[in-house]
Amino acid sequence: MFRNRRQSRIARTAVAGAAALLALGIAACSSSSSSSSPSSSTSPSASATASASTTPTGTVSPGGTATVALPAGVTLSYIFPFVPAASANEYNTLGFQELMYRPLYYFGGNNNSVAINYPLSTADAPVYTDGGKTVTITMKSWKWSNGESVDASDLVFWLNMMQAEKANYYGYVPGLIPDNLASYSATGPDTVVLHLKSAVSSIWFTYNQLAELTPMPEAWDIASAGGKAGSGGCTTDTAKDKWAKCTAVYNYLSGLAKNANGYVSSPTWGVVDGPWKLSKFSTDGYVTLVPNADYSGAPKPELASVELVPYTDDTTEYTGLKTGSVDVGYIPPADLAPVSGSQVLPTTNPLGSAYNLAPFYTYGIQYYLINFHNPKTGPIFSQLYVRQALQEVMDQKGMIKAIDNGYGYPTSGAIPQEPTSQWIPTIQSENGGQGPYAFSVANATALLTGHGWSEVGGVMTCEKPGTAATECGASIAKGAKMSFTMDYATGITAFQDEVADYKSDAGQAGIQINVVPQSFNTIIGETTPCAVGPKCSWDMLNFGGWGYNGPGFEPTGEPLFATGAGSNSGSYSDSTEDKLIDETHTSSSLSVFAQYATYTDQQLPFIWTPNAYAVQAVSSKLANVTFNPLGDFTPEYWYFTK
Amino acid sequence: MVGFLIRRTGQAIFVLFLVTLATLLLVHLFPGGPVRAMLGERATPSQIAYYNKLYGFDQPLYVQYLKWVNQLIHGNLGFSNHLNQSVTSLIAQCLPRTVVLVLLGTIVSLLFGIPLGVYQAVHRNSASDYALTAISFLGYSTPTFFLGIILVDWFSVDVHIFPPFAPQGTTVLSILGDPKALVLPVFTYAFLLYALWSRYMRSSVLDNLVQDYVRTARAKGASERRVIWVHVFRNSLISIVTLLGLSIPGLVGGAILIEVVFNYPGMGLAFYSAALNVDYEVLLGFTVLATVATIIGNLAADIGYAVLDPRVRY
């Protein structure tokens, strides 16, 4: 659900600024809220198995308004699920639109899982035939609030819209859906058949392609206000007219979506198939949702309404908790006592017995980027032993303890460590969860000296150029220094401390890192992959990480590690990596996925950095609130207790 | 006076031109370009190209500027692509909050700062003067956000006398309809300003008290009360008028720290947020408004001089 507005700064902000990502829906494991005495008390279940949920206690008291804190500085701004890049963020999608307009397939839910959740989806499991070239989707025939069926034509409507307006859909990647479809059609009222251009992995296609589809009601297929449902013609449009009808419908709907003050009164946006409908929407951040009485799925909402409340910063949000004006919020990291060992939650609940606490993990990884195309340092980064050394001087556990007060866990590879999932390769569990390259300055030093580097004036210097096993490596000249500049994003104290710690540890191994604070926007400006040349001059960029919470949900590497990938800003390129990534798109075998993940973990295309998690607070009167790592927001599961 | 006003209006237009042009240039100085900064790290090259075209960033700077000016002339301040609302409606949402806060804070601070400044000057070097000076210095040196947080902790969290947040309405009436919620933010804003007014007033009165005209008035038998409140007071206000004029931009610029502490999203926060999100039309719209307010403030101060000081003529 709600992460930082900058999608890339995932968990980092979850701890620092917006940490709280809204308390909105967030997941669970077992259970465990910290019950505490009025002043403050000991949590009996503050252990590693602490749940990201509040345990249901007491009997259901129907009704009531749950007030939920939006992350600091966040306001919701776009209602149309066909989201353009300029409005794409998880607050608008997971935290707002999906409450009203359910996607074809829902991931996560009111739990700790990151897997597909068929009960919350509008279609049954897709059926793959013809060796993975044909996909049959059967809709569940849910109902829209206006009585229409959520049927096959609603899905075709979306697919046609994608054909017409690829540039206006944030998740579009050239070559992928809808480009990879040879044809598609509704073969029955509830059945859509997709014919693909080539065979695909059923898991990848479901998790990273079908996941992008959202049925749209016929009532939206209009090109002007007051138009008759379906009069826009997008559902039946074809390429013959260059999808002109769909373009007209898109222009109308996107124009309507730009009138935020009209969301509540709009008959168009009032047609919903999710458990909630909009009751109040203010562009200053106040949003109220009430149950959709016609919701076909389960469970039906118990609450009378959910109210989202904006906050200007963490302190005001925390004041809201302290004064009891919100039911679900987050505790700023600075207000949390340190935890150690297997503890996940603080021993003392700073809010007393009025709130239960729960951890909120984010399904993502943290890293800093290295620039393989830097003409000077790129050849050095290209050596695997160098990347290993750079990883081995990263004291993730030490940073988590000293800087994050224990509220974190190492990033040990390309797959998020939390929650446990089928995707995590065994290699990431090595060295107590640090992955294959645990913190060891001695090992890092040995790696460098074993490859022809010697410390000169405190900085490792290449003494043995060449490509033999004990030499520095290709294109590294004699006298080259292990000296790099790291640009890091300012504004988050913990982040700054981590960079300083890393510089210090790296220095012990003779790796000189000159740290340069930069604004987030400056860093973002540098993240464009560049061709080898004098202008491609950055060495290391440190600003956050990546969240696997949409539009794709299987943590495959195509957006990050594939050659030429959009977010492969350091221009990492490895033919084996590319091949393994491609195989995850065509094979549903978990062992194939494990090969990709293991190889990536070993190769270190990025250098992994610690992940932090947030601690959420939920009113002790409100039950069954969970914090799913994907950021799902599912208040239909919540209820007040008697 | 009319000639003066015409001259000043001409100057104002020129200043407005320079400021808006500079703002537009600054937007283009974002590393990687404004669209890259707006869409974030995940933006693909094709998305960047698409939005550059959509927003007109691929056109020459002067064309972009002229288009924006044309839009402005037609009363359109632009559209926030981040917030998905018009800049005008954003201002309509934020401005009442800021105006109420700044205006009330300024009035309260003037009500206390000016008479106490005069009192301090008249009783200079007395115990009460020292005590009030200490309070003023406290006002000067206490960071606004710190004072706000302390007040919230004491009066909202600990003893529940006042709400922790400022009124959340978006119209002047709805904001004023919750006076209890205004107490802490207004006091916080006024405390800093009080220090400013009282120190200036004290200094200004002290300067005037040694002037010949004061000596003359006293020699003519004017009472001390008349000397202070009729002769000295009016002349001492001249420096305050300058400051008041310069504080007018605060009506649209906002008081960002107070807005943050009291969860009161006004103009300051909106502008800050627009800068962070490279919401360029909001930046330009707010810049225009702030520039106009600054120009009006200066103009008001100049007119104020003429009213207070008969020697000043334009």
Describe the structure.
- The complex is a heterodimer of chains A (642) and B (314).
- Chain A is an alpha+beta fold.
- Chain A has 3 domains: 10-80 and 276-361 and 614-641, D-Maltodextrin-Binding Protein, domain 2; 123-262, Dipeptide-binding Protein, Domain 1 (Dipeptide-binding Protein, domain 1), CATH 3.90.76.10; 364-612, Dipeptide-binding Protein, domain 3.
- In chain A, the strands form 9 sheets. Chain A has a 5-stranded mixed beta sheet.
- The longest helix of chain A is centred in the C-terminal third of the chain and has 16 residues, at 493-508.
- The radius of gyration of chain A is 25 Å and the shape is globular.
- Chain B has a domain at 94-268: MetI-like fold (Orthogonal Bundle), CATH 1.10.3720.10.
- Chain B has helices at 2-28, 34-39, 45-54, 61-73, 87-122, 127-141, 144-158, 172-176, 179-209, 212-219, 224-247, 249-253, 256-261, 267-276, 280-308; strands spanning 79-80, 85-86.
- Chain B is globular and about 80 Å long.
- Classes of the chains: A alpha+beta (642), B mainly alpha (314).
A few lines on this structure:
Chain A is of the alpha+beta class and 642 residues long. In chain A, helix 14 (575-586) packs antiparallel against helix 15.
